[in-house]
Specification:
The complex is a heterotetramer, with 2 copies of chain A and 2 copies of chain B. Chain A is of the alpha+beta class. Helix content of chain A is 36%, strand content 39%. Chain B has one domain: Ubiquitin-like (UB roll). Classes of the chains: A alpha+beta, B alpha+beta. The interface between A and C is medium-sized, with 35 and 35 residues.
Chain lengths: 150, 89, 150, 89
């Protein structure tokens, strides 16, 4: 697996090619790209700052990917998460999962995102015209995560 | 016992602490030190600390980089962290 | 929506960038890339030929995307499907879905793939050491499609 | 009545037909022409046609580019297609 936490941008196309050329029996590559929306809760967002817990972040992400790999028959996984200050429309996160078949690759990719949202130590602060505010965790994210335990 | 404590996001900003080394006399805590006991101990520092750690804000904790619940035991030399529920991705 | 049936290869990274820059309130882009596996049912596959029904294919794909767009709150969708003769590890299909939130984008992307597999007029013939053979439709694909009707 | 018929994949290869224009006398079919009746009609051509259209192989059909079932009615001028279950993606 590849897990990176970085300030610089990433190239989703490059990461997808890396994964699909890693094994000749790969039949499916599912990818998620998360972006800074210019609108949140009705307010115009000009920028977003992502803080993280340096010692813990990679470990938490690796543990999430390991869980996905033990639950589903998938091959390689790449997770890249940016930190620092990002502008609206910039890329925040990439999760790419390669596997033999699409069903398991889709599940693993969504599982990783749902767990990342609730277990990986990142925090978002957004700047709107009214000033800066820390984002609150969403109940919908907790719910998205809980369905994997059913 | 000596531990390192980190604070993140809203906690860090409001408490104006990002990290500190804490030396705790062994007799402060009746039995094993837990995250909850440590929170209650730190909350005595001031109203702001009380509000941030024992107030309405949901606080999550990690010990040695692993998310744990309030009853997790803390040992000498541990790295403890307090932060709001995560909001990455 | 963009639907293309073509012999030439595609650049998943380019298509993803197009979709994510189309609207500033896009928060999630989910993509699927399907590849020619070098192994199928235990046999080494050297190449795959994809036949389609020219008059019908685009219409069928557009109908599938429209269904997805009426079921979920998503923005733009791109579907590219290759036809002709492809070698092992080459890309066959790309489905990219942009939306405000990840849950709906994931569902729509998987729905489009499940319907494409059972409703879009493409047929695969593979070449192995034993000669050429047409692939049979899989029951697992029918099952994957059926779960969307529950 | 005049229709156009297309064959794809295994059907095309075995029947050695990719497309044909069919002119059907109106009195061949008791009532409305359906996909199933057309299949049965074509199956009379030879054993191979019988096997491919009315045998074990699952055959799907489309009328004017829309997937339909065996009981779908065919009208004058329609474009009909027969093919095995699809396997793209």
């Amino acid at each position: 697996m590849t897990v990176r936490v970085q300030t610089q941008d990433f190239d989703a196309g490059f990461e997808i090619s890396q994964l699909r050329s890693a094994r000749k029996d790969t039949g499916a590559v599912v990818s998620f790209v998360g972006l800074v929306r210019d609108l949140n809760e009705g307010d115009q967002v000009s920028q977003l700052t992502l803080e993280h817990y340096p010692g813990m972040t990679e470990k938490a992400l690796e543990a999430i990917v390991s869980q996905a790999q033990s639950r589903w028959n998938i091959f390689e996984v790449t997770v890249i998460h940016r930190v620092g200050t990002l502008q609206a429309t910039e890329q925040i996160v990439l999760v790419t999962v390669a596997g033999a078949h699409r069903g398991e690759a889709f599940k693993a990719c969504e599982f990783i995102m749902d767990y990342l949202k609730t277990e990986a130590p990142f925090w978002k602060k957004e700047r709107t015209q009214a000033g800066e505010r820390w984002l609150d965790a969403k109940n919908t994210d907790d719910a998205a995560r809980e369905r994997w335990n059913k | 016992m000596k531990i390192k404590v980190f604070y993140f996001a809203r906690l860090k900003e409001t408490l104006k602490f990002s990290t500190e080394d804490l030396v705790l006399p062994d007799d402060v805590f009746a039995s094993t030190l837990t995250l909850l006991k440590l929170k209650a101990h730190l909350a005595k520092r001031s109203d702001v600390w009380q509000q941030m750690l024992m107030g309405k804000l949901k606080v999550r904790g990690a010990i040695n980089h692993v998310l744990v619940d309030d009853h997790a035991p803390i040992s000498d030399g541990d790295e403890v962290a307090f932060f709001p529920p995560v909001t990455g991705g």
